[in-house]
Amino acid sequence: MQGSPRTHHSSLLTPLYFLHVPKAGGNSWRATLLNLIPGLAPCAPGVCSGLAEPSTRFCLHNHTGHAPYTESDTAWRCAHRHALRMVMLREPLSRIRSAYSHAAKKKSKTEPNGRRVGCCGMPRDAVAAIQSSGLSLEGYCRYPGSANVIAKQLSGRKPSSTRTPNTELALRTLNAFEFVGITEHYHESVALLRHTLGLFGETGTNAVAHAPTAWETLADGVTVHTNVHNSTSQKGCNDASAEARNAIDMRLYREGVRLFASRFCAVWPKHRVICDRPLQREVG
Q: Which of 68, 246, 249 lies closest to 171, judged by CA?
């Protein structure tokens, strides 16, 4: 088990870098950040280079949509300088079913140049096939570019890329992130984030430790991702072949759960669900 996650109690500016994995509760997580940190604004130009004077305790590094984490762009340089990097992970097959369901419900749209509007980091032609031709969930699960989205983003590729991601690079990147949350354990992830950002203070952290059944109160008005299990009842994309196609993401998810549990239990070791029995048993 790893030691307690690093916490931020200083008055120095900490840019927050959030890697948005499609259909892993990312929009809810952004809303959570805004509720936890009133006035949280995008980082000003120059912050990542160290040129700008910090005016607040936190700022949010602004990047577009489901951009990958890459070593060649400003986001990476900012993150490796002094930002706190965070990611939310969701069980891979549940995430795929949710992406398919979301695309199937959306109306077909095109951009001014005639290109089909994308959805959820999915290949554009797959979205078109779902919306226009009735591509099934099973068909989408086998579609080029649909698998191993987490690994692609963590190794610097777009989520819709058809190229095989670099597994070891993705694992190293995940382990370097200061915060890893699990969508299926959203309330506990909020608690760990608060601890990591130093928003509890020792008194608050200890108080929670003595009331481990009151995790719902940790949200305190934040947006909670409540529909994570809604897509799990769909038939399809839940067999051994689907797991095999997404083997890299399954491995990353297990590693993410391990990181989350070790960091969480270093702070709240008496939590019955997460710490009494290793979460890894739930995922592999």
A: 249
pLDDT tens-digit series, residues 209-252: 544 444 444 444 444 444 444 444 456 787 889 999 999 999 99
> What is the C-alpha separation between 145 and 185, in angstroms, rounded?
27
9-22 residue pLDDT tens: 444 678 888 899 99
Among 264, 258, 263, 259, which Cα is nearest to 278's?
258
Using DSSP's 3-state secondary structure scheme, residue 85 falls into strand
- For residues 130 and 100, the answer to whether their CB atoms sit within 8 Å is yes
Q: Does some domain include residue 261?
A: yes
Backbone dihedral region of 142: left (phi > 0), alpha (psi from -120 to 50 degrees) or beta?
alpha
The C-alpha angle with vertex 21 and arms to 79 and 97, in degrees rounded to 5, equals 170
Domain for residue 219, yes or no?
Answer: yes
Give the amino acid at 156. G
Give the mean pLDDT of the chain: 78
User: What span, in angstroms and rounded, lies between the C-alpha atoms of 14 and 209?
Assistant: 26
Q: Judge whether 136 lies within some domain.
A: no
Number of independent structural domains in the chain: 1
Asked whether the CA dihedral 87, 220, 186, 25 is positive or negative, the reply is negative
pTM for the structure as a whole? 0.82
Structural domain contains residue 142: no
Q: Cβ(108)–Cβ(115) under 8 Å?
A: no
Supply the range of the domain harboring residue 80.
14-90+166-283
